[in-house]
Amino acid sequence: MLVGLVSIWFDNPGTLTTAAGLVTAGLAFALQRVVTAFAGYLVILRGNTFSVGDRITMGGIRGDVIEVNFLQTVIMDIGQPAQGDSGDSMWVQARQYTGRMVRLSNANIFDQPVYNYSKEFPYIWEEIRLPVPYTADRACAEKICSKPLNATR
Fold first, then answer.
1. How far is CA 36 from the centre of its chain?
2. Phi, psi at 48, each rounded to 5°
3. CA dist list (Å): 30 to 40, 74, 103, 111
4. Strand (E) or helix (H) holding 98
5. What is the third-level CATH fold of 31-125?
6. DSSP character for 87?
7. How does DSSP assign 2-67, residue by residue?
8. Is 43 within 8 Å of 86 (Cβ atoms)?
9. Burial class (CB in 10 A: 0-12, 13-18, 19+), 124
């Protein structure tokens, strides 16, 4: 019906077809990121890539997934040193929440790897550094460190 109404302004049906094709191509080009983000949303849901509560790295951002929308994934950012950086320049040294909520396009799932730290395995391997100087009492340090470990057994 819409084509019938629009055909009133066109004398030649070929011109109408060309105009419709150009408009469709323009819309496809303008909405390609939106369509890709929605396709990424479907991949996330159907592929069980990650879900709310999982700890992931996507697009270079590490954090916990707070929300998954049609177009974006919201991640609670966790502090981490940049690649090759010792972490001295960061204001949050450990892998703790920075307070930043990062919104990433779901289209990133096609462009970059997604690391899921909590899927398929219920634990996250983490390293805790406890610097003990050479001049300190080693036996006392071992006793202090092993006390919480023995309490969990």
1. 15
2. 55, 40
3. 17, 24, 21, 19
4. strand 97-105
5. SH3 type barrels. (2.30.30)
6. S
7. HHHHHGGG-SSHHHHHHHHHHHHHHHHHHTHHHHHHHHHHHHHHHTT---TT-EEEETTEEEEEEE
8. no
9. exposed
Q: Quote the CA–CA distance of 124 and 116 in Å, as a whole number.
A: 10
Identify residue 55 by its one-letter amino acid code.
R
pTM, two decimal places: 0.62
Q: Are 110 and 97 in contact (CB under 8 A)?
A: no
In order along its 153 residues, the chain shows pLDDT tens digits of 666 666 666 677 777 788 888 989 999 899 999 999 999 999 999 988 999 999 999 888 889 999 999 999 999 988 765 555 554 445 556 677 888 899 999 999 999 999 988 877 767 677 777 888 889 898 998 898 888 888 876
Cα separation of 80 and 96, whole Å? Answer: 8
119 residue type, one letter:
K
Helices 32-46, 13-30: inter-axial angle, 10-degree rounding = 60
Tell me the C-alpha distance between 81 and 99, whole Å. 16
